[in-house]
Design brief:
The complex is a heterotetramer, with two copies of chain A (582 residues) and two copies of chain C (286 residues). Chain A is α/β, with parallel strands linked by helices and 582 residues long. A seven-stranded mixed beta sheet of chain A has the order 9-8-10-11-13-12-19, with helices on both faces. In chain A, strand 2 and strand 3 form a beta hairpin. Chain A starts with a strand and ends in a 9-residue tail after the last helix. By secondary structure, chain C is α/β, with parallel strands linked by helices. Chain C is built from ten helices and nine strands. The longest helix of chain C is centred in the first third of the chain and has 15 residues. The mean pLDDT of chain C is 96. The chains are: A alpha/beta (582), C alpha/beta (286). Chains in contact: A-B, A-C, A-D, B-C, B-D, C-D. Chains B and D meet through helix 1, strand 7, helix 7, helix 9 and helix 11 of B and strand 1, strand 2, helix 2, helix 9 and helix 10 of D. The complex binds thiamine diphosphate (2 copies), iron/sulfur cluster (2 copies) and magnesium ion (2 copies). One iron/sulfur cluster binds next to loops of chain C.
Chain lengths: 582, 582, 286, 286
Amino acid sequence: MALPDITLQLAGESGEGVISGGDILTSGAGRAGYWALTFRTYPAEIKGGPCMFQVRIGAERIKSIGNQTDLLICFNQEGFELQHATVGDEGIVIADAESCKVSEEFAGRSFEVAFSQIAEEVSGSRRGKNMVVVGTVCGLLDIDTAEIEQLILQRYAHKGDVGEANIASLKAGEKNARENLPNVCNVDKPGPAERERILLSGNQAIVAGALHAGLNYFAGYPITPASDILESLAARISRFGGVAIQTEDEISAMASVLGAGYAGAKAMTATSGPGLSLMSELIGLGGTAEIPSVIIDAMRAGPSTGMPTKTEQSDLNQAAYGSHGEAPRVVIAPTTVDDCLQCAVDAFNIAETYQTPVILLSDQSLSHRLETVDRPDLSRIEVEDRLTVADPGSQNGSPASAFPRYKLEPSGISPMPIPGTPGAYVSTGIEHDEQGHPSYTAEVHQAMQDKRFKKLDPLAANARVTTTGPEKATIGILGWGSTEGAAVEAAEILTAQGVSAATFYPRVLAPLPVERIKAWAAGMDAIVVPEVNYTGQFARMVRADCEIPLIQFNQITGHPFTARQIADFITANVKTAAGAAV
Amino acid sequence: MALPDITLQLAGESGEGVISGGDILTSGAGRAGYWALTFRTYPAEIKGGPCMFQVRIGAERIKSIGNQTDLLICFNQEGFELQHATVGDEGIVIADAESCKVSEEFAGRSFEVAFSQIAEEVSGSRRGKNMVVVGTVCGLLDIDTAEIEQLILQRYAHKGDVGEANIASLKAGEKNARENLPNVCNVDKPGPAERERILLSGNQAIVAGALHAGLNYFAGYPITPASDILESLAARISRFGGVAIQTEDEISAMASVLGAGYAGAKAMTATSGPGLSLMSELIGLGGTAEIPSVIIDAMRAGPSTGMPTKTEQSDLNQAAYGSHGEAPRVVIAPTTVDDCLQCAVDAFNIAETYQTPVILLSDQSLSHRLETVDRPDLSRIEVEDRLTVADPGSQNGSPASAFPRYKLEPSGISPMPIPGTPGAYVSTGIEHDEQGHPSYTAEVHQAMQDKRFKKLDPLAANARVTTTGPEKATIGILGWGSTEGAAVEAAEILTAQGVSAATFYPRVLAPLPVERIKAWAAGMDAIVVPEVNYTGQFARMVRADCEIPLIQFNQITGHPFTARQIADFITANVKTAAGAAV
Amino acid sequence: MPETIQRDAKDFKSDLKPIWCPGCGDYGVLAATYRAFAELGLDPDNTVIVSGIGCSGRFPGFVNSYGYHSVHGRALPTAMGVKMANPDLEVIAVGGDGDGFAIGGGHFPHAARRNVDITYVVMDNQIYGLTKGQVSPTSLHDQKSPSSPFGNTEYPLNTMATAIAADASFVARGASFRAKELTELIKAGIQNKGFSFIDAYSPCTSFNNTTQIWKDGVKYLPEDHDSTDRAAAFARALEDPLTLGVYYENARPSMVDQHDALKKAAEPQTVDGLLDGYALNIKAAA
Amino acid sequence: MPETIQRDAKDFKSDLKPIWCPGCGDYGVLAATYRAFAELGLDPDNTVIVSGIGCSGRFPGFVNSYGYHSVHGRALPTAMGVKMANPDLEVIAVGGDGDGFAIGGGHFPHAARRNVDITYVVMDNQIYGLTKGQVSPTSLHDQKSPSSPFGNTEYPLNTMATAIAADASFVARGASFRAKELTELIKAGIQNKGFSFIDAYSPCTSFNNTTQIWKDGVKYLPEDHDSTDRAAAFARALEDPLTLGVYYENARPSMVDQHDALKKAAEPQTVDGLLDGYALNIKAAA
Ligand SMILES: Cc1ncc(C[n+]2csc(CCOP(=O)(O)OP(=O)(O)O)c2C)c(N)n1
Ligand SMILES: Cc1ncc(C[n+]2csc(CCOP(=O)(O)OP(=O)(O)O)c2C)c(N)n1
Ligand code: SF4
Ligand code: SF4
Ligand SMILES: [Mg+2]
Ligand SMILES: [Mg+2]
């Protein structure tokens, strides 16, 4: 019987082409019409060390990393040792004949292929081992290799015969699999694609979204897993007329982003937790001086230096509350790769419209996973610009350098003059009156805090939310960020078990959409909040403001949730009002 | 009729001796057996500008700044203009005859005294104006000036005749008041003192407490209102064998404090909001590497640079959550000046016992208010030290530099070797195993986060709480920090009005004493949380963890609450279950 | 190019009265700045003054131009952001010795290395004025202050040497009480395409009143000083610190120039073009 | 004073195997450090190695001594805290060029000014190794990297010039592949009472493989170089950057010395004595 989708892992040593093999396989499967979503682990060493590439592919859109490994391909013994525990009860293991012995428990569902040897035979070099692996997978799953051959030719165009050698290995792997491993595993064939699709990572999607929104100033400091945003922009932003600068640290990056935003640019930085912490003071300045800015935080596992290559959703507190005093800012979290693109645009639109810092919380798993998504129609993704000053003279006519930059408008949003045009004023983080002049009276402070916080209210009411399932359900899953796919699948699993379940994923987390959460929650018998963190940061925010009972599901393995983990937690732990375990 | 206490204000121009006059008056009243508590405002200018000194004195311990001014002394017209609105319905105004005209509304309760002229007559210089003012107050309130004369002689010992001249002015002011303003206002005479008393500020009390706890390394960067902690320690820590260092910024200060703590010192830094924000990343390191440290945050009004000379309780979020990932730390808040001393000792005891950063949240009003308090008996304030290693060999005996520093003990607290003694290990903010070696497995991460968080549990259960009022009451006031005095007085006001009221002030805010709050809350019909901040940071923490309904009272005037403000808020806004407004 | 409007120093005065103490050197730096701006014919709407926190940090409020009062120590990276976002703006960064060399000191060498096109004027009073008189990185060894009651244990930072080591493209020292010369330095700094650093002695009359000593002690670099000789400039910087003048100049491509070159060399692209790079030319299974 | 135990370089090897790439220069610096420690007879229990984050930041883990792996850029202030808290400890700070001169660059001049008694060894590979190859402050102009695909627009920081401008009391340059000389430099740095800075070229074989160029290019300062002449040292620092040796020395009281003097001069006090200063000698009203 063919599976609706299949989760496969390539496990080996860094340097053996595990990752490049996985990349090409994913691309090839994508071009062959499959949907795909990847996940990988990184070695602790700078170079070398064990690594693993996982891809789940199927005929329908893939929402999460997959509950277990259906097909494990081991490049070496260590790969087997480290990964075999993830293999499902009916999962298949294919091991390198030369270097890997599979244990007894896989008897009957493990096979050997002499990857290196095959490569050597057909190409004269053992280097093609990973292509034999890719070919093996194509043979097993009946994926046409034509597209992959193209990719190989492109990738190795400047490397002499390497392309041809790799293609030979690929085909040899495929042939061997078709001949010697028939019907070992099967996956549903995809139907015709309804739309164009693209394959990219969360970080790549953020870059595309930011550029679409009009990004023209980027400053950042390298940090895993955000560095490739800096690198990608360094390579291409000049083609869009902007600049990308690698600063001496994150404080400098954020300070310069605010300077650029003040000067009228659409400015962004990208970092991970440690950098976000360092930006705390300046994020407070941005909120107080009301300067648009976008901060991408690709979360990694904390605390402190923590586990830089692992994923976690543990920066929400820092994003929402990090900064002394009470400095308003907006926090948003994308849930999928295509949502990264949309949220990047949203981030700029919100930053510009509300004149505020916007922190976009992605995470390591989302930053670096490759996902096939429908190609977004950019012409339909609207871009907004800030309210500037049409005729400052009419509003000003006042003494030198005293434009009422912080005018108390009912909306809380005051027109912002851009240096180079009339309307000179001083932007400041000192408490200030409408002209930006320092003022320490109770009235001014109250009025300005009101202005800065209340202007964000429309976001709570109007920002985007995705929800699945019925309005009245036994189980509601409330979450944020990259866990959505797993949560939606978990709801499907529960529904299939006869327990009605729904999901609710707001994009804007601060300000929290309190009324909308309450309205949705009213239809749920019990609400579970799954978070890849220790304390349940989002659950605590929701309890603080919505005053509804929640059940936290917290897990900090450094890996994303699987749907099964969420469903199992609910089945094991949640008793509904009726008293029965779900 | 004599008042139980009286709130008086001196209002004038910086440079006229308003502050020094107020200081001496407060000291003199203190020596005469009165209790006192002061409050002042600062000019916006670096030098010059209007300033105001307020002191409330009485026969019983003073808990808060006073609900209104009972006696306003104006050094000049601006002083009157800026402060007269604070004068109560029966309050008296005494104005400088030369420079100040009092408005009609004070007819019958305003008096003129020619402060400068009297000074000039008796001392040959108008400089003694402030001493005439002090003498006037002594005359009005029948305070013996003998002690004040002593203080003047001490203060001006090295300044030639200035002391004598000032005493002449003082006495002339007193005489004039006794002769020309008899029975204008009266305050209860204090009874005999039961214990020795001292008069000091919150910052001074923190310094004393820290030194008592064994502080031997201090590093800080100047910032209002914390600078005087650095200055005071620079002047005296060498007498205690320690060092105080002014670093190049707060990041350096905090890094060095952690270095010193690691090396075995009792180490502390002191800052205000902007500095605390900058320390975010390193506080996370302290929590992760489990290094004892104490951070004093003298909160000022935010956000950003905000209003540096004004008070606010708005850094709680930053203190509790500031740092990416999830890094445990302890947050404590003293409520009075003597409690500052006790809490400083507590902070070190907690830091040492639990091997964690401890953030002590004071605020501008507490930092700089002078308060008469019973002299603490230092011999009864216990000092605790960290768990070090008696015989590392027995636990170690293992390879080079692999002492199990992070051993998973049931208490979560592992013995900490001190450099210079056997037990070498590497302290790190990378996720690590028991030996401190980097480790990124799910099991290690989970175990170490459990260790770091759960070791703090005893604090929530056992840390100090103060509470007043009955166990069952109509109104419960739940708060933190320097608002306690006003809250307790507000409860007294409500009680006097026939509404039973109680207060609950925990010292340790993170970890939150959830069970104890819940137990106390169970006896209250309604719970009000007064905070000098905008969003209700503590209320939100309590709701997140205790899931009890709360009524927030938030005010951001830059000034401390008065008891009346809290009582009035409750009367106006709180309806109890019975439905009737309180 | 808009027509140049004749301007007067007082056109650059804002409606806010400085809150500095009587005699504070910052008044002199402010006056020199007004004059420099006027003489260069700067347009207030096209000029941005960026500062950090300190007495000197209040500077932008007193100038009729755009201003940006950042947090403590971040004037330089902020100014870089302003300039790189809109290279047409004239960007001046100002601040104190603490702001620029203590908390903000980490940004200085990088602004210099990048040669970002801004002029940075430090009002150097060898003290923290706003926080009431603690020693700063430029305070003298053994100097007494509230935070060094037994005398400063640290040795002062040599700002000229630091700037020359960082290869700033224009390095000069002036003084608030030498208004004409300071005006010229500020003008020269603004005219230099690249990072210009002007350390302006500016006495703090309240907490470190060096007015008289400085007035008595200042002198100028000799006529024959070769400001293009880096080693010679450094040697000068080790001599009498009260020597004023242009210590060092090293004209080279500015940060704006370099990024302009990148932009010019780049082929324009669209985001759709970018997405093409991720496209899957899907072949649906038959 | 405990009796000096004869030690061997391998006594300083920890049980953790370095995770550096094959050929990484950091191995050489590590070996030189083991030898320097052994030759000086340091006691592992009395020695603390402090680092920030980077490939080089992993260093303390590989040494049998106390270690402290701080966050990125904070090795110097951390080391100051360790040393000032317990001056009997031998404190060595290590790190990368990014750690020390980008994010941590603001601490460097102050460590030098204070003359804190530590030895700071920077493994300078002119690249960010751990984050996979972006340019660092010491990267060359025009150098290509993932974050400078069209060539580095910035100019490299001259670490020798920077240290001399900051008046560090011992300033030297070595190289990982000149083990014997590097060992001597580290020993001399540790023996200097005050802030010793050693910039050790340490090639990154994975992201900026300068091994051959550096090996071919290095030379030494001439015999007659006068390391006590600051101006001359600076002039040297402007010459061929591949020149190794002790550039500059300026012996003066260290931070520990200065604070020791304060402690010695101070009259001991108790907290009760301190409280006496706040005492109210209350006269209760009759
Ligand atoms: C992060 C932070 N730390 C500390 C302060 C307090 N602070 C304000 S200005 C200043 C130093 C002022 O000295 P300087 O830069 O020399 O300026 P000056 O007042 O002398 O002109 C300090 C420490 C602050 N505002 N922010
Ligand atoms: C605050 C913060 N920002 C960024 C990083 C990411 N990061 C880790 S090491 C490093 C730079 C490494 O370069 P270098 O200091 O030269 O050391 P090397 O790896 O070359 O030895 C960076 C940017 C971090 N860990 N923390
Ligand atoms: S304190 Fe000093 S620097 Fe500040 S305004 Fe007064 S004189 Fe100027
Ligand atoms: S990446 Fe470079 S610096 Fe890091 S271990 Fe490898 S060779 Fe050394
Ligand atoms: Mg200064
Ligand atoms: Mg490096």
